[in-house]
Amino acid sequence: MFPKGFLWGGAISGSQAEGGFDSGGKGLSMADLLPYGDRRFKSMLNGTDALKNYNSENFYYPSHTGINFYEHYETDIKLLANLGLKAFRFSITWSRIYPIGTESSPNKDGLKFYDRVIDCCLENNIEPLVTIDHFDTPVGLVKKYGAWRDRKMIGAYLNLCQTLFERYKNKVKYWITFNEMNMILNLPFVGGGLCYDKKDNLTQLKYQAAHYQLVASAAATKMAHQVNPKMQIGCMLAAGEVYPYSCNPKDILMALQKNREQYFFSDVQVRGYYPNYIKQYLVRNNISLNITLEDKKILKNTVDFVSLSYYSTHCVSSDKEVSKNKTKGNVFSSVENPYIKSSEWGWQIDPIGLRITLNNLYDRYQKPLFIVENGLGAIDVLDENERIHDDYRIDYLSKHIDAMSEAIDDGVELMGYCIWGCIDIVSASTGEMKKRYGLIYVDKDDEGNGSLNRIKKDSFYWYKKVIQKNGIN
Ligand code: BG6
């Protein structure tokens, strides 16, 4: 049973939706350097490659135009209101507010855009859920500080937070400090704006950058509570339980260790200190982090809720032969689980895994959970009447909603659920448009052509009913 006031929602991010990459005084963002095509993944790993090869005349950069939410936000939010959304998650594009990142005052035009987006949500009775940084470091800060490799990033980030919290203190209640902070371990440029070369000890660099983000997140939490104690601040994990491939104790141990890679981030943000297992991991790997006494004090400012994205579970095996059989398409290296099916992009589909993940997170923290991303990336085809019959998406979503309901019945406290890319947006990993998550179709292709018309899919009408009935049946 879903509780009264459950936040049925949808989610997007700035760089995947807005477009208008140089409008209204916006500066270049890290996401603007990720091209469509073969070079994209390499650029996502390492900003050195992204910066060196940036050439907007010869390559297509999907974030530059997105789905032009920048100009369509009003009609898009009305469509979402028609869908019945109770919450809409979007992110602030940092370089719209601080184009380089080091300015002493914010860019007024950038703020005006978010004023309108937020007001539009409120006028339509939609609760805004704002991600402060969704894979979106300004290029100015990448060039000046090397992004999150430098402690100075904490100040730059808090400057942004101060501007946002003061301006929207009576309008926005729910905030997420960083999108999927644990992603920095897999995609250092995406997660932390990191550029590096052979001289760098990459593991050291990633954990140091992660530490600065953890301190920034805790300091932002403190600041938000000072500005308005009613504001609710969440951390966010790219979640999904790691299963042992077999009951071989070696597999169980591997899974335990792999799960800690994600739990490290939420453990610190929920409990307020580094757990012993990570301290030992750092020692064993000769990693010595710059952690001050003041940092330790700041980390004590813990979050109000734990948000998560959930697409899949993962599997690990100590058997070399078994380990060769990896899933396709997912940035998390994972052994293919033979018991579950995969999406067209090779992401494994595991609704029961959502129930398991929610239970484990809740057992660990006893904090309210919020699923802020879940959905199916699939190819949608228009029929002769320009309709999209996406029963595969309805099937995926309804099974995950059932799993959520079961988790609630297990005792998990769940605040809400946002369908990822509720309106079609650019895929973060591939830069494609054809990998669609939306309940609303956007007419645009992978090369950037199309009318940008919006069309309601069958899943739109289905989700509308789900919301109306508060998830019953
Ligand atoms: C999450 C990100 O990891 O996965 C989103 O927070 C992203 O930005 C989503 O879009 C789905 O991934 P993709 O690559 O299919 O867009």
Structure description:
By secondary structure, the protein is α/β, with parallel strands linked by helices. The chain has one domain (7-468): Glycosidases (TIM Barrel, Alpha-Beta Barrel). 41% of the residues lie in helices and 13% in strands. The chain has helices at 14-17, 39-45, 47-52, 69-83, 94-97, 108-123, 139-145, 152-168, 188-192, 202-227, 249-271, 276-284, 293-298, 320-323, 351-365, 391-410, 458-468; strands at residues 7-11, 87-91, 127-133, 174-178, 232-239, 242-244, 305-310, 314-316, 369-373, 414-420, 440-442, 454-456. The strands form 3 sheets. The protein has an 8-stranded parallel beta barrel with strand order 1-2-3-4-5-7-9-10, surrounded by 5 helices. A two-stranded parallel ribbon has the order 6-8. The protein has a two-stranded antiparallel sheet with strand order 11-12. Strand 9 (369-373), helix 16 (391-410) and strand 10 (414-420) form a beta-alpha-beta unit. Helix 4 packs parallel to helix 6 (108-123), helix 8 (152-168) packs parallel to helix 10 and helix 15 (351-365) runs parallel beside helix 16. The chain is globular and about 60 Å long. The chain starts with 6 loop residues before the first strand and ends in a 5-residue tail after the last helix. The mean pLDDT is 97. The structure holds 6-O-phosphono-beta-D-glucopyranose. The site of 6-O-phosphono-beta-D-glucopyranose has 14 residues, from loops.
